[in-house]
Amino acid sequence: MPGTKLRRQKPPGYTLSDNLSTGMTFRLEVGMTVRDDIHADITEFLHNKCDIDPAKVSEATLLNGELDVDSLDLIAMAQLLQNKYDVSLDDERIASTRTIGDVLTFVEDKIRKRA
Prior knowledge:
By secondary structure, this protein is mainly alpha-helical.
């Protein structure tokens, strides 16, 4: 059923680590892509760790402008994404991203290169 929420499942070809210590909620909505899943993780991180309203988080949202996310928060977010998606993300590259969409593309590219 569209909109049905399921427990987050391991996407084919990707490693999903159990990040219970991060407080992340594991879920996968029917029809979600890996990009959607990464976006959901970023949104949840920003909400839980930076008290940012999820409605403000879109691909075009500026990290340093609209959200006022500092470099330490970005590095913490990168560590969460590295652990979850089993990829290596350069802290300097993450810290220099401008938008949520930039982060999504960077993580997606790393996952694709790993496969």
